[in-house]
Write a structure and sequence with these properties.
The chain has 5 helices and 14 strands. The protein is α+β, with helices and mostly antiparallel strands. Helix 1 packs across helix 3.
Length: 191
C-alpha cells in the first residue's frame, strides 16, 4: 500500500494547497479566512514531482526526500499520502535543503550570525537571474523610478533582470522590453 501511495504521489501533476496557507482567495490570505472559521476551497495547482525517495521507515514514521517544483506543498504531500493509506498523519519535521539555486552550503546558521556573513542581496540576485550593470545616470534614473534606456545598462538584453550599480549594489529588479526597463522592485543601500 505504501509503495502504491508513493507511486501515485510521484505521478502527481496537480495538487490542492492546504487550507491554512498564504494562497490568496478573493484578495485575502486563505489562512486568515480559515482562522475566522470560514471554509476555504482552494483550486488545485500544477506541480512537478521530480523524485520522491523513501529514506527510512520505522513503525509508523517515514523519512522521505522530495524534489519538487515551486508551488508544491509538503504538508499537502503528508495529507494526501496518509489519505491514500486510509490513515491519519502529519509532519513531525520539514527541512528544506535547497530552493532554486540556493542550498545549505550557502546558508548561515542563526547561531553563526555575527561571526559569518550571510550572502548579500546583490550576490543572491546574481545567483538566480541575469544581471546588467547600470551607468551612473542609469542608476540615478532607476533609483527614482524613471525609465532606464539601453544606453544606461550593460549588457543589453530583454526580460526580467537584476540591475547592479557600478559598485555592485543591487539597485532594482526590472523588466526590460522594447529597449527600456521598468522597475518591478527597487532597493536602496543594499549590497
Amino acid at each position: 500500500a505504501l509503495t502504491s501511495a508513493l507511486d501515485a504521489e510521484r505521478a502527481r501533476t496537480s495538487q490542492t494547497p492546504p487550507q491554512v496557507s498564504a494562497v490568496h482567495v478573493d484578495g485575502e490570505r486563505a489562512h486568515d479566512r480559515v482562522r475566522r472559521g470560514e471554509t476555504v476551497v482552494l483550486p488545485p495547482r500544477d506541480v512537478l514531482v521530480r523524485s520522491i525517495d523513501l529514506l527510512d521507515r520505522r513503525e509508523s514514521v517515514l523519512r522521505v526526500r522530495l524534489v519538487v517544483s515551486k508551488g508544491y506543498y509538503v504538508r499537502s504531500f503528508a495529507r494526501d499520502l496518509t489519505a491514500r493509506l486510509n490513515a491519519v498523519g502529519h509532519l513531525t519535521m520539514l527541512r528544506r535543503v535547497r530552493s532554486g539555486t540556493f542550498d545549505l552550503s550557502s546558508a548561515v546558521a542563526p547561531a553563526d550570525i555575527g561571526t559569518k556573513s550571510p550572502m548579500s542581496v546583490a550576490r543572491a540576485a546574481e545567483c538566480c537571474m541575469p544581471v546588467a550593470r547600470l551607468s551612473i545616470d542609469g542608476e540615478a534614473r532607476a533609483r527614482v523610478g524613471k525609465l532606464v534606456l539601453d544606453a544606461d545598462r550593460s549588457p543589453v538584453f530583454e526580460g526580467v533582470q537584476a540591475w547592479l550599480s557600478a559598485s555592485g549594489d543591487l539597485v532594482a529588479i526590472a523588466e526590460v522590453s522594447e529597449g527600456s526597463g521598468r522597475i518591478r522592485r527597487g532597493f536602496n543601500g543594499t549590497s
